[in-house]
Structures are given as C-alpha cells and as structure tokens.
Amino acid sequence: MTDYSADTDESLALRSTTDHDAFGALVGRYEQKLYRYVRRITDASHEECEDILQEIFLKTYRYLHNFDDSLSFSSWIYRIAHNETISHFRKRSVRPQTIREEDGTLYLQNIEADMDIAAEIDTKALQQQIQKILDTLGPKYKDVLLLRYLEEKNYQEISDILKIPVKTVGTRINRAKKQLHQSITEQGLFITP
C-alpha cells in the first residue's frame, strides 16, 4: 500500500477518482473528525451517526469528479457532512437540537475565551444553562457557532461550508454571541465583582 501521508487532501481527492487507496487515506483522515461533527450537531445514537457517516463518504466518493479545487477539501467534505446530516434529520422531520454534553465544555470554553467571561462564571452551572439557551438559537446562528467554536473553522471555511458570504458569517457569529450574552445576563448567570 502506498504511503499518502505527504499528500495534501486536495491531491488525494484528485487521485481518488482512479486510486481507491487514495480515497481510503482520505477516509482515514476525516472519519473521526466528521463523526465528532455529526455527534455534535445531532442527538443521534452511535449507530445512526455511523449510518450518516457512511452516507457522507458515499456521496463524497460519488461526487469527487465535481470537487471544486477553489475550495479546500476540508470545507468541501464538511459541506457534504452538514448537508447529509440535515437531510437525514429532515427525513425524520426533526431538526437536531442538542450539542452533546461531552462537547459542551469545549464549546463553552471556546465561547468564554472569545467573549472574555471565563473569570466571571461558574462553568459547571453555566454549561447547563448555556445548553438551554443554545437550543433556543435559530439554526443559522447555532450552525456558525458550532463550526467556529467546536470545529474551529475560520470564517472562510464556514462560508464555504454553509455557502454564505464571509461577512454574513461574521454577522451571524456576532449576533449569536450577543444573543447568548443577553440571555446569560437576563438569567443572572454572571457573577458580579
């Protein structure tokens, strides 16, 4: 088997149309990342996440010939993952509402650092309240926060994944953070000095 460790994702994607092992290398690089992403935006069981992941890789392979090399492969496959996950839940007529508890702490820590509120809050109690508040955010705000703070994507990558302008990404993140901050303040979750 060929060693693909030095290859970029984009070069592997181009080679994958004729080299099945190259596609296997891409699957190896993205399997755990995409599994975590699907788990973070859904309330799906392990088995259901595995099914969604399988569909993601099937669609990725099926549409490799359409890969737009002006995008990063990462943005392209996350776009497929996002669409496939949402499509799966539309079929069930349920919009995913939950961010997994094991991810909640990381999510909260990243938002706290960006909002500079870490020193002012009791993280454990806030985590439960934040989950309730996040569940009230609309999907367009929740999606950008998830991609920014859990998946650690930059604005351009989020733009590519959600197919919205970069400025819209920034606007949505700012509005979502303001909504979070306002809800947190209204619920008295800040500890005032």
From TrEMBL:
GO BP annotations listed: DNA-templated transcription initiation
Origin: domain of life: Bacteria
Keywords per UniProt: Sigma factor, Transcription, Transcription regulation
Every RNA polymerase sigma factor 70 region 4 type domain range: 128-180
GO MF annotation terms: DNA binding; sigma factor activity
InterPro entries named in the record: RNA_pol_sigma-70-like, RNA_pol_sigma-70_dom, RNA_pol_sigma70_r2, RNA_pol_sigma70_r4_t2, RNA_pol_sigma_r2, RNA_pol_sigma_r3/r4-like, WH-like_DNA-bd_sf
Ranges where the RNA polymerase sigma-70 region domain occurs: 26-93
UniProt record similarity statement: Belongs to the sigma-70 factor family. ECF subfamily.
NCBIfam families assigned to the protein according to its UniProt record, in alphabetical order: sigma70-ECF
Protein name (record): RNA polymerase sigma-70 factor, ECF subfamily
Lineage: Bacteria, Candidatus Magasanikiibacteriota
